[in-house]
Write the C-alpha cells for this entry.
Amino acid sequence: MSESVPNSYRNGPDERGHFGIYGGRFVAETLMPLILDLEQAYKDAKEDPSFQAEIDHLNTHYSGRPSPLYHAERLSDYFGGAQIWFKRDELNHTGSHKINNCIGQIQLAMRMGKKRIIAETGAGQHGVAVATVCARFGLPCVVYMGATDIERQKPNVFRMRLLGAEIKPVTSGTGTLKDAMNDALRDWVSNVDDTFYIIGTAAGPHPYPEMVRNFQAVIGTEARQQIQELAGKLPDALVACIGGGSNAIGLFHPFLDDKDVKIFGVEAGGHGIESGEHAASLNGGQPGVLHGNRTYLLQNEDGQINDAHSISAGLDYPGIGPEHSWLKDTGRVEYVSITDSEALDAFQLCTQQEGIIPALEPAHALAYVAKLAPTMKKDEIILMNLCGRGDKDVFAVAEHLGVEM
Amino acid sequence: MTTTRLEKRFAALKDEDRRALVTFVTAGDPDLETSLEILTGLPGAGADIIELGMPFSDPMADGPAIQASSLRALNGGQNMIKTLAMVTSFRETDKETPIVLMGYYNPIYIYGVDRFLVDAKKAGVDGLIVVDLPPECDDELCIPSLAAGINFIRLATPTTDDKRLPAVLNNTSGFVYYVSITGITGTAAPDSGKVRQSVERIKRHTGLPVAVGFGVKTPEQARSLSQCADGVVVGSAFVDIVKNSLDSDGKATSDTAPKVLELVSALADGVRGTNIEAAE
C-alpha cells in the first residue's frame, strides 16, 4: 500500500481528473479544447434531472434494466463453498454491459449537438452497442476495429454492419484494440467540429474514466439493492473481469466503502504472466502514460507499449482504467489473473451447469470464482458480474477445442 | 535562462531577414547509421533547426508515415539512450544548429524525467516538443525542462481559441509550433490564407517566433507558408523519402540519405526564395 487509507474510496477523481497519481488529461493540444468542452457538457448534464431521467427511461424500456440477480445454485454446489450469484448484464439489449455506457454517452452527444459518432472496439461488444444507439437515434457511426479482431469476431462485425455502422479495419501496430483506439483518436483530431467519440471503457483522458464509470455504476447500484433484498445481506466478495475495466468499476464503485466486502478484479493472464503473453497490466505492467491517462501499462524498459494477448478480444488491451490503478495501489481491490485455458474451462462449465453461455470475458471472472468459492463458507456470498453473453465467442471456442463447424 | 541555441538561431535569421527551415526526422529510421548520416548532413543541406523524433510505438497524433518510421526505428533497436547518443555525436561537429527532441511523454516518463533532462542537456539538446503534454500537465515536464535550461516548445492548433491561447503560450519558450490543420501529420495541405491569419493571431499574444507545420511537402508550399511565419516545419515528406528508398528487405540503400538531403536543399531554396521574391 503506497498511500494512507482515504476516508472514502468513492470521491475520485479530483478536479483535474486524477485518482491519486493516475488519470489526468495527456492529449494533444488539438483535442484539449474538445476535452474541456466535453467535461463542461457532462457537468451541466449531471445537474439536469431530465438527462438522468432520459437515461433511466432508455435503460428500462430499451435495454431491459434492471438486469436480474441470479443465484447460480448448481455451480455453488459444484464448487462446494460460497453461494454464487450472477449479475445478469449479459441479458441487456445487445448482450453485454456496454449498452449502459452508450446510452449515456449518446444522450450527451446529442445535447452537445454532435452529428457524427466514432468509437473503437475490441471484441465488438462496444462497437455493437454504439452502432445500436446510433441506429436508434439516427446518427452516422464509424467504428475502428483491429484487422485481427475483425477476423476473430465475425458475428459482431456483421451485426454492426446490419445496424448501419461503417467498420474501419485498423492494420497499424498489431491490429487490436489499442491500435483501434489510436485510429479513433486520429479521426477525432481530424474531425473536431461535429464528432463525438464514444470511448468504450473507463479509460482515456478525463472526464471519460469518471463518466463511463458513472454510466456503468447502474450495475453495482442495482446489485447492491438486489442482493440485500434476495439474500438479506451484502455479498462477502465481488468478482469481475478486467480489460479496460468498465464492467468491473461499474460493479465495484457502489461497494467501495463497504469495508467488509472483498473485491477481486480478474485480468486476462493469456498464456500465463511468466510467458510474457498476457493482458494483465496491473499484475505484469508498470505505470506509464498512454491514450490520455496515466495508468498501469504493458511496456518495455524503453517505454514502448507491448502487445497484449488474450483469448478474449475484449480483454486484449495493454492498459487499464486509471481508477483501477489507484484501487490496486491503495489495496482496496485485489487484482488477480486467469489464463486462457482456465477461462475456456469456465466457459464450458457455466454452459453445462447453468445453461448460460457466458462471453469469454466473464468466463475469466468465473474461473477465479472457481478458485475462490471452495475457500469460503456455504453461507457466504460471491457476487460476480456476468457482463456479456457468449454467442459471439462460439466460433472462436470451437476452434480452440478443435471442433470443426 | 541563458540564451539558448534556438533563441540565437532565430535572432540571427531575423538579422538576415530569413525564415527558418525546420526539419523533422525520426531518430534511428531506418537504422542508426543511416539516420546519423542524415542528421549530420541536415545543416549543410539547409536545415536551420532540427527536430529529432524520439520513436514511440503509439504516436496518436501522427499519421501513418511517421508511425511507420517510428516502428522501423524501434524494430532496428532504437531507444532513448541511442537517440541521446545521436545528439552527442552530432554535437562533436556542430555546436550551432539547434536540436529539438520531439515525441510522446511515455518514453521520457519511463526513462525518468530528472535523468532525462540531465542526459539531454549534456548531449546538447536545446528544446523539447512533447505532443501529449498540454499546458494542463506543465508540472510533469515543462517546468522541470525550463529549470534545466531546455526550451519547451508548445503546439498551438486551429482549435486553440483566444481564450485558451495565453495558457498555451505561458511557459512556452524557444518558438511556438503552429499546427496548420486539425488532423494528423502528413495528411491535408494547409491553406496559407488561414495560416497567415492564425499566425497573426498568435503573434498578438507573444513575441516568440512562430513556425508552421503539419502537411508541408513541397518547396512551393514551403515558400508560400514561409511568407506568413518565422519558420516552416517539414517532416512526413522526409519520412516518405526514407521509406521509398528502402530495398525489398526494408533496409537502407545508398540512396536513402542523399535523397532526403536533396529534398532538404530544395525546401531550403523554397524557404529562402521568399525573400528574393519579396525583394523583386
